[in-house]
Write a structure and sequence with these properties.
- The chain has 321 residues and is α+β, with helices and mostly antiparallel strands.
- The protein is 33% helix and 15% strand.
- The protein is built from 13 helices and 8 strands.
- The chain has an 8-stranded antiparallel β-sheet, sandwiched between helices.
- The protein starts with 18 loop residues before the first helix and ends in a 9-residue tail after the last strand.
- The relative contact order is 0.12.
């Protein structure tokens, strides 16, 4: 809830698109530096219009003030709002100020859809060869997977092993029999707990994908720890209630939990590679999960099915490691 004393009642994210409303609040005494504990300029940069951004930029003390380690210009670049970014630079924002992972808004924009957004000063480095390769592969992977519906999907993306090895590590068996066939045909006719033991496994370039288009089973810790021996496994559960939930296992140990793949906002302690990946796969959680494990899918079948093989998991507690 917005604080009472900052003068921004009712300002949800979509309200920053209304320049007249922003101006009226400011003229009535709204605090240009704070809205419910957040910086209004950062909110407008990500969700508003160039006019709203310019209005706020004229009234703040510092157009490059930081919020959680980033400037408003960074937020405009991350959100792929080039017109808002231009409004900020016209107000004096610095595109080349290093922020998270050493990236500046200007250099990060070189990896996005508007690489000519800011004139690059002499001596300012562009993208490295590995970074350009990452940009190219991200575009290819996103196109290959396509625009799929994935609410409720569970995935484990595993590097360096094929479907046969994944099945061996899971001690799974071929899903046969009438009950398994019925679940695969109409999984939503069953309670979720009755279907968690059925998963699909598919070999892909770079490794394999364990999938359950209707449930979270592949992302359970006990699946990851078995699959990730000597390698890495990235799990995704596209929770319809709370959003995408990511997890990482390395060599049988859970290294990350309750992550937010495709969220678009790098964390303050992210590496340069993690910042770039978060930017490239904004709103692309499935592609991010595959890319993290180095999987180079050429189509969406490994994710949405039908997989190479449906298998049945042995009964055990998969919430323990």
């Amino acid at each position: 809830m917005t604080a009472r004393n900052d003068g921004w009642p009712g300002m949800g994210w979509n309200a920053w698109k209304d320049h007249d409303a922003v101006r009226r609040h400011l003229d009535a005494g709204a605090d240009p530096e704070s809205c419910g504990g957040n910086r209004p300029l950062h909110q407008a940069a990500a969700y508003g219009t160039p006019q709203a951004v310019a209005e706020l930029a004229r009234r703040v003390t510092d157009v490059d003030a930081l919020e959680y380690g980033t400037t408003a210009l960074w937020e405009a670049v991350i959100a792929n709002e080039p017109d808002n970014a231009r409004a900020l630079t016209e107000a004096g924002a610095d595109p080349w100020r290093p922020l998270i992972g050493g990236w500046s808004p200007g250099r990060l924009s070189l990896a996005g859809p508007t690489p000519d957004l800011f004139p690059r000063p002499e001596g300012e480095p562009g993208l490295t060869e590995p970074e350009r390769a990452a940009v190219q592969e991200a575009g290819r992977l996103i196109t290959a997977i396509g625009d799929i519906y994935y609410d409720g999907l569970g995935l484990a993306c595993v590097a360096g092993i094929d479907a046969d090895e994944a099945i061996r590590r899971l001690e799974a068996t071929s899903a046969q029999g009438e009950d398994a066939a019925d679940i695969i045909k109409d999984p939503y006719d069953y309670d979720i707990d009755e279907t968690l033991h059925i998963v699909g496994v598919t070999t892909v370039p770079g490794g394999c994908v364990v999938t359950q288009p209707w449930g979270y089973a592949p992302s359970m810790p006990g699946i990851h720890t078995r699959l990730s021996t000597g390698t890495v496994s990235y799990g995704l559960y596209a929770n319809p209630k709370s959003g995408n939930q990511g997890s990482i296992a390395r060599d049988g140990v859970i290294k990350g939990w309750d992550l937010h793949p495709g969220g678009g906002h790098p964390d303050a302690d992210d590496t340069p590679e993690e910042v770039l990946a978060t930017y490239l796969f904004h709103h692309k959680a499935v592609a991010y999960s595959c890319a993290y494990a180095g999987l180079r899918l050429t189509e969406a079948r490994a994710v949405t099915g039908p997989p190479d093989v449906w298998v049945e998991l042995p009964e055990r507690d998969y919430w323990t490691h």
